[in-house]
Specification:
about 450 residues, about 75% helix, mainly alpha
Length: about 450
């Protein structure tokens, strides 16, 4: 069933009275899906800290708010370290955020094909809404932590599902998805900060954000032009039986030359991939997953292990403001590069990995020896860091989509999504001892 997806999309666009309108709707739909999938997660984590600091138990708040805060909140006045460190590394945020997603991405690709896409999208929207409600009405630490877990589940399952969904559409929707996920970080932080800045409480702001899960549902069910072969409500086995040989031949006749060369009706009749075939696909994906994981390892080692320590006391911005601008400029770089697929495509993924590792090494030495003269230079580096990370993400999945066999493509897109999460988790683990070492100086 996987290989018929892009052919269905092409056929639908040719039979539509306005093929351009269909392509635009699909691109916009995936842009909104990318935005909603990551947006709820960013907002909820930012709000978790605001909710926790209002809870009555000061000891519980002090320990947990450090683990859930998305932004660095300033130095610790009792800390004698020259780095003005928080007592707990912001890598704690990273691990709390990424571990549920990592578990899902490691296991779900082997069984998720049994769950139709419509049910997956409904589940992701419900989990995102539950995360908003839990954090908004939180009266205990465990409720806020559960909100983090629900948001992570929604984001992880949504990412692998929507990436797999792209194989049923023309390949340019990958650009829309990548751009939307890049915009989520910037838009989420700005919107939450803006609403709370004008006087709305975090509780009310979170309730307003319940519009985000509904926007995800509208984007999928009403904006996308879904192809007939998409297993939206029925199980995969039912879908295989439903697509007859005549329909498959029509799809073949209407497909592009590139797809025609790869697909045959016999291939389509073979049904779902076996477990052995999936392991074979994963082996072939390592050339994509390793570079992607390395990029994200270096990227998040910088973000959660080093950014907090790149403090310039004589700069006109406070420590907290410097950190927030680091994160903002990083997100701007991610947004720009994840939106660049329509303009430039980079096949040499290892080059992006190497450049990102060099960034991490440079900033690690900069933290230790403090040779950078000003925060302005760090601003430039983190913007460049975001550009590399976003480019690695969209180009990885573009070339997986282009170079993977049709029958394997849907599984490959879902399975490869583990690369970035694995790199992020390892970065979080590595950042803990690094943070402890520097803060002890």
């Amino acid at each position: 069933m996987e290989q018929t997806g892009s052919m269905d999309a092409d056929s639908a666009e040719r039979t539509d009275g306005d093929g351009y309108c269909t392509r635009w709707r699909n691109w916009t739909g995936f842009w909104l899906l990318g935005l909603c999938n990551n947006f709820a997660y960013v907002i909820m984590l930012s709000a978790a800290h605001d909710i926790l600091i209002k809870q009555e138990s000061e000891n519980a708040t002090a320990s947990t708010s450090a683990s859930l805060a998305v932004d660095f909140q300033g130095g610790n006045s009792s800390n004698s370290s020259r780095y003005d460190c928080n007592p707990v590394s912001t890598a704690a945020v990273l691990l709390a955020d990424i571990l549920p997603t990592l578990v899902i991405k490691l296991s779900a690709p082997f069984v998720i094909h049994k769950l139709p896409y419509g049910i997956r999208v409904l589940f992701c929207a419900i989990m995102a809404a539950a995360s908003f409600l839990l954090v908004s009405f939180s009266s205990a630490v465990w409720m806020s932590i559960l909100g983090v877990i629900f948001a992570s589940i929604s984001s992880g399952l949504g990412e692998l599902s929507f990436l797999a969904l792209t194989v049923y559409f023309s390949r340019d929707v990958l650009g829309g998805w990548g751009s939307g996920t890049g915009g989520a970080g910037v838009a989420g932080a700005l919107l939450y900060s803006g609403l709370t800045q004008v006087g709305l409480s975090p509780h009310i702001t979170l309730l307003i954000m319940l519009v985000v899960p509904f926007a995800m549902l509208i984007s999928y069910f009403f904006l996308l032009v879904l192809p007939p072969s998409l297993p939206q409500w029925r199980g995969r086995e039912t879908e295989y039986a439903a697509v007859g040989s005549e329909e498959r031949q029509q799809l073949m006749d209407g497909s592009e030359g590139e797809e025609q060369a790869k697909s045959t009706p016999e291939d389509e009749a073979n049904g779902a991939l076996t477990f052995t075939e999936k392991l074979h696909v994963i082996k072939g994906l390592l050339r994509f997953v390793f570079p992607l994981g390395l990029v994200y390892f270096a990227e998040y080692f910088i973000n959660q292990g080093l950014m907090e320590l790149l403090y310039f006391p004589k700069f006109f911005l406070s420590h907290a403001e410097q950190y927030r601008w680091y994160q903002t400029l990083y997100q701007v770089g991610v947004l720009v590069s994840r939106s660049s697929l329509c303009c430039v495509k980079i096949r040499k993924l290892w080059a992006l990995s190497l450049l990102q590792v060099l960034n991490a090494v440079l900033l690690l030495f900069a933290v230790h020896y403090q040779f950078l003269p000003s925060a302005w230079l760090v601003f430039t580096i983190v913007l460049y860091e975001g550009l590399l990370g976003g480019a690695a993400y969209v180009n990885t999945f573009y070339f997986i989509s282009k170079e993977t066999e049709d029958r394997q493509r849907e599984f490959a897109m879902a399975a490869a999504s583990v690369g970035d999460s694995l790199g992020i988790a390892l970065a979080g683990l590595t950042a803990f001892p690094v943070h402890r070492y520097f803060c002890s100086l």
